[in-house]
Design brief:
Elements (H helix, E strand, L loop, with lengths): L2 H21 L3 E17 L2 E19 L2 E8 L4 H13 L32 H16 L4 E20 L4 E17 L6 E9 L8 H14 L9 E7 L1 H14 L2 H5 L20 E3 L22 E5 L2 E2 L6 H6 L8 E4 L2 E4 L4 E3 L6 H6 L3 E9 L9 E12 L2 E14 H6 L1 E3 L9 E2 L3 E9 L2
Length: about 450
Amino acid sequence: MTASDQKTLLDRVAALVEMAERAGADAADAVVMRSRSSSVAVRLGKVEGTESAESDDMSLRVFIGNRVAAVSATVGADLAALAERAIAMARVSPEDPYQGLADPARLARDIADLDLVDDTEIPADRLKEDALAMEEAALAVPGVTNSSGAAASAGSGGLVLATSHGFVGQYAATRFSRSAAVIAGEGTAMERDYDFSSRLHFADLEETEKIGRTAGERAVKRLNARKVKTGVFPVVYDPRVARGIASHLAAAINGASVARKTSFLRDRMGKAVAAPGVTVTDDPVKKRGQASRPFDGEGVAGERLVPVDDGVLTAWLLSTAIARELGLETNGRGVRAASSVNPSATNFAIEPGEAAPEALIAGIKNGFYVTELFGQGVNLVTGEYSRGASGFWIENGEIAYPVSEVTIASNLKDMFLRMTPANDLDRNFGTAAPTLLIEGMTVAGE
């Protein structure tokens, strides 16, 4: 986003807020969410698809007493008409005692530079070359027999916000990604796997050859998978799937779920929800963080939180309205979704433990190392957890052979309390987790 674009959009949202006040709003805020992206996908040496997309979406929220309404439009819309429509809607809306702008004292005063933008221009030809190079490297791995495709993309996004109590701010972030997926084996014995890299700065991406080679090697390792007997075993989650465990925890401590009584942790504040020593952080102001932002969707300055400290639940993720409903104060986790604001995690991480993944595995006589999960069998109201899975069997402290057609089950409440993180956390994800050992899960096979 150029300086000229920034000024134009800032002027636009500020003017929209002013028009809303003139039309009768007690308070208002306006936001523009901008996105740009381009991508190239290839398969078997040929381009399968190219895509370019642009959007500039503007929304206005107005407050009349405890009544609120929101409208959305394109940036070029008639601002006066938009303001009048929002006011008319608010006047007939039901009252909501929790709605309103954030407390001015909590607004970001200095917009921090979090190094979220890389101005490198990536032409479509370079995206194509990168995708082809990944696929070529993957197909060169002995045992790989086909390709599911490779892709490379570049894009950017940004937010411009103005409120009637004087906040005006904007930020932008870029994102570059590469991915490859291939198939190993023949006939009914085929296996598929993948690798990818996503970064805010182009130079930080994993090399194309490494991504392709890793995808190929992972697929080949899964060949000749066996079934296993049903029983109760320790389960080790590879970081790729451990991030899913972290996302379930983030959803359970989301204030919106707590307020609506749809979280299995809603009555656990101040109590142990994870094993001693387990710490969870959420940091919106991390430099170059995948989900970093200098302020949230309401202009509130966010700070690093430790929602789980030594196993004890200490904080919910909160936006302004949800915080008021719970009798608390926002902690800057409000995210704009069109014209609404809801709490969400930022750079959410299960912090690393002390042991290496190999050390965790070495202590297991019989267990399951999970590399892929299937299905949606997670109930965040009760914590019940049941997923299809594949991966590798552990025997006498070593990875022994690939396994498939397995179901793993437990309850998230018990899983968190029996969870041991390894020391291999990769923070290059908005939701991150190291290798996780979870004791006593039901593994259903034959």
